[in-house]
Every structure is written in structure tokens, then in C-alpha cells.
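Q: Start with the shorter request: fold the first protein.
A: Done. Sequence, then structure:
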Amino acid sequence: MASSTFPTVNKCTSIGREKHTVVADMDGTLLIGRSSFPYFALIAFEVGGVLRLLIYLLASPIAAILYYFISESAGIQVLVFASMAGMKLSSIESVARAVLPKFYSSDLHPETWRVFSSCGKRCVLTANPRIMVEPFLKEFLGADMVLGTEIASYKGRATGLICKPGILVGDKKAQVLKKTFGDEKPDIGLGDRVTDAPFMALCKEGYIVPAKPKVTTVTSDKLPKPIIFHDGRLVQKPTPLMALLIILWIPIGFPLACLRIAAGSLLPMKFVYCAFKALGVRVIVKGTPPPPVETSKTNHQSGVLFICSHRTLLDPIFLSTALGRAIPAVTYSVSRLSEIISPIKTVRLSRDRATDAAMIKKLLQEGDLAICPEGTTCREPFLLRFSALFAELTDELVPVAMVNRMSMFHGTTARGWKGMDPFYFFMNPSPVYEVTFLNKLPKELTCGSGKTSHEVANYIQRVVASTLSYECTSFTRRDKYRALAGNDGTVVEKTNKANKVMGC
């Protein structure tokens, strides 16, 4: 049965489908894009690095030739082998859980989603490796079942080969569907090409998703679950052109990042702003920062505590750049390399409340101090819950709204080595940091006037969120690491058996 015999998906009603079963293809159907190249490229780069991305890019023309002149399955097999062969299955699963959902969700087809989301039982039948697509489909689209290509493995590593019955295209999709559902026909079948016709013919109703040059993607608020946390180094989807630009830029970008870091670390802080500007790093300062406070043991004057929203571990450094003077920062942990190259003093918090409180009070007696009470970074326009400890320690509180813009690389990670975070940020061709100083908290809104620490913390969170047009959440560091890394963000350091936080 040719795909032209099926009506288009816009003619499918989505009313009264609560007890119906839908089976949908993925590329070109659930997703607007018909090419899976970018998602295999993400696996290649995030697990194997730039060299693996280069190998994958070189293999892609071979895959394209096989796809168009031999068979669809042969082309996909090359992409699977080039991107996954030799990789740990656990690493592929980690990228599929933490990185791919952000990119998949930005390509969701509105008409397909309208029908898919209206059905009570949802199944996806795809040629993509199941290990690669299942976390997104089940967790964010509410799929009950994912039938995908199964990749072969040996001792926990992908061989790059495919298990029987092979790549799920054409008749093989129909065979798997028949085996799964038996004599019970699914109510709706959704596909986008001739090779989807065999499985669509096994459904009570079949609808084709036509390729259109301009389709508006589903907005994030229409998803069953918003994507607040995501990982990975790449900002943009690695299309073939973008993948080539990344490969060509890294040999230029890494030395440039080293030069930018050296300028920030070695120059006096009052010159860093101009040095960054000359090197292509834009620092935008808004609001009026408070003047430095003269403190001493005799006058008992407390320094100002800058309460910053947390975008990267560089927040305190750009705060200092905006002020033109070095402001020490307390952190939940940074890598040893980041401590070495940091131009400001960083002091680690122990997560013992009494110990941390005493240390922060001591630092405030010496001068101004910066803290990021979210405890970890968030890339999306959300603020995580503010820890309330800071509000108990001083009434000299200045909220600071931090926001940054990166065009190629993210300067944060939950899965990778955090020592590379500043390098990736400064590897962007023209990174931007915007520092907005808000009004100092009035005395009547501080703990000194009877407010509880939680009231103060929540108020500052709302003020910063309002300034940035962000949304306040109650999510914590632990929620982030459970979502992205499958742990609570702590590891046991063998040298002293003490829990050390994995980083920002």
C-alpha cells in the first residue's frame, strides 16, 4: 500500500482517543526533521570527543550514498557503527538521558504530537537504536512502548553491529509490530514515507505526515514534563555544516580560550574588563554596584554578601570583573584546575551548617563576599531553590542577576570533567556575560528585622527571577544530578573517605 493512499495527519481527529493505541514513527513523523545525523553526531561528540565526531563526519557521505542508492538500512548501519562502535553502553545511555532530550524536544512535530498525545496508549516504532531514543520518548513524551533497533554489545561495549531482525525499516517494522501486538490491531499508525506503509497498513487507521518546508515546533510548555535540566557541551544541534564548523573551530578556539583565561588570571582585576573586551568576551554591567565596605575587627562592620544566580562556575569572576576588584567566593566545590587558574580566592563549603556559617562570617569580617545559593548551575530560564543559610549570617545583602550567552559550547557539565568548564566557555567565538546589580536588601526585609531566613531567601529568589524573566522552582542540586548523572551529586574521596561534592 503506497503512502499516498493514506490521508494526511491533519485529517486525524484527536477527540475521544483516550482508549486508543497509537503507533508512530520517529524521524519525520514525531520529529519534524527526517535526518537522524545530528543525534548520532551528539553521541559521537559527547562520548568520543572531537576526533570521534571527525570520524563520524567523514563516514556520513558513505552512509548517504548507501542510503539513497543501496538501502535505507545500510545507510543507518554506517551511522550506528561510526558513532557508537567501541563505546560503553552506559555512556550512550547517559547521553541519551541527559543530552538528547533537549534537542529532540526542540524538533517535535505539532500535528503528530496533537494526535500522539491524545491517545491513551502510545508506542513508537523507529529505525533509531532503542537505547538512544527510549529515555526521551518515555520520560518526556509519555510513550508506553518503544520498539527500536537493538545494537549488539560485548562486555558492556557497543560493537557497532545490529541484532536481529536488523535495522527496523520497511517490512521489518511491520514484522515487529505484528509480533508485539499479535492479532490486536493498533488504532492509529503514523508515518512519513513509503517504507512506513507496511506497518501503517496493520493499523485500523493510517495517516501520513507530509514533509513541509516550514513547521512551527511544539513549545516546551506543551510537553508533559518540562526539560529544566540537560547536559552536553554543544549549544546548537550538530547538523553536517555545524559539525564541520565545530571541528574546524576547536584548534583555534582552544588556544584562544587559554589566552582569555590567562588574561583573566594574570592581569590586575581592574584591567580584566578591557582585556576581555579586546579578546572578544563581552561583559555587560547593569545597575549600580555598592562601593567597597571598609571592614576591621574593631568596627565589626560586615562586608557585603553578593547573592548571585548561578549559570557557570565563572559567575564570581565576572562579578569581580564588573566591580573592577577581586571578590572572594564560597563554592560547594570546584575542580583543582579551576582553583589554580582562578583570579579570585575560592573557599570550599563543607556542607556542615555550623562549620560553613562560621567560615562565611569570618570571610565577611575581612570584606565583601560572593555566593551562589542555588548550589549548582541551571541552563534553562529557571532558578533553583535558594539555600537559606546566607540570610542568617548578615543583613548586608545585594542580589545580582547573572546571565550569559554562548553560541557553540556550554560552560557547564554534570557528567564530564569540570576542569574543562572554563575552557569550553571561553572557546565560544564571542561569549557574553551580563551582570545586573539589584538594590541592596532593605533592613526591614532581613533576618535582623524579624524575617526568617527562608523568607529572605525566597524573596531574593523571586526578585532575581523577576529581573531575568525566569521562573522560580523548588528543585535542588540533588534533583539535577539525579536527572542527569543518576546520582545525588556527591562522591566518596578515597583519601579521607569524606563526601566531596562533584562541583557546580
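Q: Next, the second protein, separately.
A: Sequence, then structure:
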Amino acid sequence: MHFPAGNWYKIFPQPELPGADCFLWLPLWVHWLECVHYQQPLDPDDNIFPAMGANGVVQPCEPISHDAVQQWINEATTGMGIQGSFSTHCF
């Protein structure tokens, strides 16, 4: 069996933290990508968190940038009135 290069993680259910339960949400996200954006199963070179073009089109082989995620974190915490500085590590 061939495995593509990349990182492998053990993800465990966290039903007591439903908003942060990657065991639940990650497969749903992948299913949504496959059905809504790609209309086919993910290819080995596709990113689970792909970049988005300016027109909202997903770029499957291009990973989302650190700057884009940091901007979303900043917008979310500011919009919720949360004080402090949060990095992508928190995400």
C-alpha cells in the first residue's frame, strides 16, 4: 500500500467538546469538499484545507496560506470582542 508524503495524526473523539471534535468535523469537511467543490473523491495531491481564489473557487493543490488563517483568526476574535493575540497554533 502506498501512502502519500505528509503528516499522519491520531484523532480521537471528543464528544464533551463538540465544537472542537475533529473526529466528527474533519470527515464531514472532507465529504463537503468532495461533494460540493471537487465533485469527486480527493486526489492524493489535494489539500484538506485548500487555498481559495479571489472568486471563491477552491484551489485543491494549493494549501491555504498561514496569512489567510491568521487573518481569519484576527477577524473572528476581534468580532467576538476577545482580547489578546492568538496565533495559528491556537487554531
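Q: Describe the second briefly.
A: The mean pLDDT is 86. The first helix runs from residue 22 to 38.
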